[in-house]
Amino acid sequence: MSASVQNLKLESEDLLRIPGIILNELAKPFVGREEEAKVIVLALLTKEHAVLIGEPGTAKSALIRRAAQILSMKYFMYLLTKYTEPAELFGPLDINALKEGRYVRITSNKLPDAEIVFLDEIFKANSAILNTLLTIMNERVFYDGYTEIPVKLWSLFGASNEIPEDPELEALYDRFLLRHYVKPLTDDNWRALLRAAWSIEKHGYPEPSVRIDRTVLEKLHRMVFEVDLSPIESKLLKLFSILESKNIHLTDRRKGKALKVIAAHALLNGRLVAKEDDLIVLKFIAPHDLDDFEKVNIILSEELKTSYKFLRELDEILASIREVDGYVSSFPSISSRLVEYRLLEIYRDLESTKERVLAMRNETSDEKVHKKVDEVVNAIDEVMDKIRRKIGG
Ligand SMILES: Nc1ncnc2c1ncn2[C@@H]1O[C@H](COP(=O)(O)OP(=O)(O)O)[C@@H](O)[C@H]1O
Ligand SMILES: [Mg+2]
Question: Start-end ranges of CATH 3.40.50.300 in the chain?
Fold first, then answer.
C-alpha cells in the first residue's frame, strides 16, 4: 500500500518538472522570448487557445512551430487570407458522396484532424470559415452545416499583426483565453539577437531534445485541477474589481476560466498550491486593446507582491546601502559626540531596513528573491559592523 503511494508521489513529482522543461526547450533558440514561450505552455497545460499579436519578424511563427515540434501530436498550420476557402482548412468535399447527394468532407490531414493547430494571420478569417472555427474552438466539434464530427483539437494558436476591429471577429478574439502582445526586442538584446539569428541561419533551429506526447499532456492537464486555489481566491476577486474600475472588462467566459490559467502557472512553477505570484497570468487574460497590455501590467505590478517587484525594491535598497557605506567610511575615526550620535542614527535605520528585507523573504518562495535578500542582508551587516568599530563598541 505505502509503496504504491510512494510511486504515485514520485510520478507526480516527475510530472511537475515537465512544464518547466517544455518551457526551457521552447524558448532555448530565441532571444528574450521567455514570456511568449510561457503563454504557449500555459495554453497547452490548460487546453486553451492562445494568440500572439505583434509586428512581423518577432518570432511568433517560429515559436509556435517549435512548440508543435516538441509535441508528438498531429499538427496543422495554415496562413489565412481574406479568400481562404473552407476546403483549404477543413478538407475537400467527397466527390463520390456528392454524386449520391451527400455532403461529406474528407478531413484527413486537415484542421479537423489535428490536435495542435496554428493559424497565421488568424483575424483574416472570413465569414465562410468563421462559424465552423468557433464551434471547433469552443465545443471541439467540427460542424459545417452538413457533417458533425468531434475533433481532437488540443490547442489552437493564432498569430496576427493587429487586434481585430471588425465586430464580427470579436467572438473569435474572445475564444483566445490567452493573448500576448509581442514587442520587438529592446536594444540590450540586439547583440544576442545577432548571434542567435546567425546561428539559426547557419545551422537551422536545434532539434528539441524532448518530445511530449498527448498522454503526458493529458496527465499534466488533469494535475491543473488538483492545484489548491483557495489562497488566491479573494485577491483574484479584488483584482477583477480593480480592473473593471479601470475600464478593463473581462467577459464572463474569461473571468471563469482565469482560475485554470492561475493553476497552470502554479504547476509551471512546480507547485500544487497557488499563491499571489500566480495571479500575474491575468496579464495574458485581461487585455483586450493594445494599450490594455501595458495598463494591466502596471495594475498588476502595483497590486501583486510579485518576485519582480521584490527584486526591484531589493536592488534599490542595495544601492542606498552602498551609499550609506561610503558615507560611513568617510567619517573620521576619532569620533566626537556628534559623529557618534549620527552613526547611531544610521545604525538604527539599518536595523529597521534589515527587518524589512528579512520580512520579504517570508512573503515569497522565489529563490532569486531569497538570494538577493541574503546579499542585501550581508551588505547591511557589513555596514553595521563598520559602525560598531567606529563607535568602538
Ligand atoms: N527573438 C528572436 N530570437 C532569435 N531569432 C529571432 C528572434 N526574432 C526573430 N528571429 C528570427 O527572425 C525569424 C522570423 O521570425 P518569424 O517567426 O517568421 O516572425 P513572425 O511570425 O513574428 O513574423 C525567425 O525565424 C528567427 O530566425
Ligand atoms: Mg509569422
Answer: 2-213
The whole-angstrom separation of Cα 157 and Cα 79 is 12
In SS3 terms, 109-150 reads as CCHHHCCEEEEECHHHCCHHHHHHHHHHHHHCEEECCCCEEE
CATH architecture of 2-213: 3-Layer(aba) Sandwich (3.40)
List average pLDDT for each run of 10 residues in the chain, which is 393 residues long. Answer: 44 86 94 95 98 94 94 95 95 91 91 96 94 95 88 97 92 96 89 89 87 94 96 95 95 93 96 93 96 92 80 92 92 77 93 94 82 96 93 70
- Give Cα 273 distance to the centre of its chain: 17
The three cell numbers of residue 167 are: 465586430
Q: Which of 388, 384, 386 is nearest to 357 (CA)?
A: 384
32 lines ligand 1 (CB under 6 A): yes
Q: Which residue owns the Cα nearest ligand 1 atom 7?
A: 59
In this structure, which ligand is nearest to the CA of 54? 1
CB distance 135 to ligand 1 below 6 Å: no
- Return the closest-CA partner of residue 131 out of 149, 113, 143: 143
For the CA of 29, the nearest ligand: 1
